[in-house]
Write a structure and sequence with these properties.
Layout: H1 3-12, E1 20-21, H2 23-30, H3 34-46, E2 50-53, E3 56-59, H4 61-67, H5 71-91, E4 94-101, E5 104-111, E6 126-128, H6 133-139, H7 144-152, H8 166-179, E7 182-185, E8 192-200, E9 206-215, H9 221-241
Antiparallel strand pairs: 1-3, 2-3, 4-5, 4-9, 5-6, 7-8, 8-9
Helix pairs in contact: 1-2, 5-9
């Protein structure tokens, strides 16, 4: 294992819901020897990739600074925010912007709805594509090899409502292609629903997905679908002309 691989193991050990971990936790989660993790943390602290706080380690500001330099996501986010703000105003729900990375979605921006409860998603966080609204919107237009990999792989049940049948998921993806919207009814988290729609870039390919997420039964996906689709189409036009 190269040094880069070991550093990646340490940084990937941070879960979405914990910003600080101890040396013991990082050792256990990374699967590396404690002495190796201790040495790497010292070097990462020296360049600002991690920070020491009350005996624990948290990701450093230098990583945030580097993240802001990712051109594709920055350009996409800047173009999307005005449309996301309008969508939030219309629906009064939380609006997500996500991209596909492998078999997962990565959230590029999240605008929380007024008085909306906390969601498991976070900017920079990941979720499986097969059980999220944005994920299904993206998978429906993804490279066929990616779709085959998802359908051939495990589809773990995250809730009692998660679709774990490859045949059922494939039918849903076909429906997304037909209607331009996808839905998540308590598949990724209980008591929440989501409506999403794909966003195309300058070359006509799907580059992202917009979604509206809210708590049941207040959120009606059949009512939010037209607004989400309209916002996604408007953002797509803006990306084509930018």
């Amino acid at each position: 294992m190269s040094v880069v691989d070991r550093v990646s193991r340490v940084l990937d050990a941070y879960p979405a819901d914990q910003s600080e971990l101890s040396l013991a936790q990082l050792t256990r989660r990374s699967g590396l020897p404690k002495t190796t993790v201790h040495r790497l943390l010292g070097e990462l602290e020296g360049i600002g990739f991690v920070e020491r706080h009350e005996g624990n380690f948290r990701l450093g500001m230098r990583l945030f600074e580097l993240g802001q330099l990712v051109h594709r996501q920055r350009t996409l986010r800047d173009a999307a925010v005005p449309f996301m703000e309008d969508l939030r105003e219309v629906t009064r729900q939380t609006v997500h912007l996500a991209v596909l990375d492998g078999l997962e979605v990565v959230y590029v921006e999240i605008l929380r709805g007024p008085q909306q409860p906390a969601l498991p998603s976070r900017v920079g966080g990941r979720m499986p594509a097969y059980c999220t609204g944005v994920g299904k919107a993206l998978l429906a237009h993804a490279d066929p090899d990616v779709v085959r990999a998802v359908l051939a792989g495990d589809l773990p049940r995250r809730t009692p409502y998660t679709i774990t049948s490859p045949e059922a998921l494939d039918r849903q993806l076909e429906e997304v292609r037909r209607t331009g919207t996808s839905h998540d009814h308590e598949e990724s988290g209980l008591n929440f629903a989501c409506t999403a729609s794909p966003v195309t870039g300058a070359d006509g390919r799907v580059v992202a997905a917009l979604s509206v997420t809210g708590r049941l039964p207040m959120l009606r996906t059949d009512r939010t679908a037209p607004a989400v689709r309209t916002a996604a189409l408007a953002l797509s036009r803006a990306l084509r002309t930018s």
